Amino acid sequence: MGPTPTPTLVLLHGTRMNAGFWRDYPALLPGVRVVTPDLPGHGSRGAEDFTWEGALATVERALPADGPVVLAGHSLGGYVAMSYAAAQPHRLAGLGLVGATGVPAGAGAAVYRGFARLVPVVGSARMAHVANGVMRRLAGGRDISQVTDDGQGYAAMPAAWSAVMAQCGPHLLGGLDIPVLLLNGGLDQMRLGVRAYAAACPAAQVVTVPRATHFLPLTHPEACATHLRGLLDRATQTYRG
């Protein structure tokens, strides 16, 4: 039996972000093949329409043919990741959800639905200007100009979050027999449904980083990378090829 192939970590960004969101992670995870695609309607693919099918196809194209593969995503990327894992569990050795354990239904979903409805009314460029200022504050004042989209990412938001609310929820984790990480910031509103996700997948590891916001991967990259490394280690140990 030969050595285990190099593990691959596919990282999916959230709404209004792009692949640059994960720019620090290859250096933080030496010995890991880190793949960071842009989702439809974001980054280098800003001219494309966002569709759920297109997002899942992006994941499929990003996966290598060999070795243990861990799929992890932040916010929207986490919901895409859980949807792919539910449909293709045999393709993955592990799943990580970062800031993606809100239950997209009820009162919580109403906030995102209302925000998305504002985009065509206010305009994606104006919405980007205002919301990016809020995001900079949540990111601790860090320069996020290279990791956030301007109007194009906001234009994709209504379709993206309509799909999340239609497709996603804790039920997608039921039956998964791969290592799962549920990672959230202690100040992140998206962690409020984590108990429902943990109940659906009792073997999942639940981690909360104190004082971190929804932008945990940006503000606490070392902590985030440490927990992703732990997920990779568990996935590699249980990898069956």
Automatic annotation (TrEMBL):
This is Alpha/beta hydrolase. Gene3D superfamilies: alpha/beta hydrolase. It comes from Arsenicicoccus bolidensis. One of its GO terms (molecular function) is hydrolase activity. It holds the Pfam family Abhydrolase_6. Keywords: Hydrolase. Residues 9-225 form the AB hydrolase-1 domain.
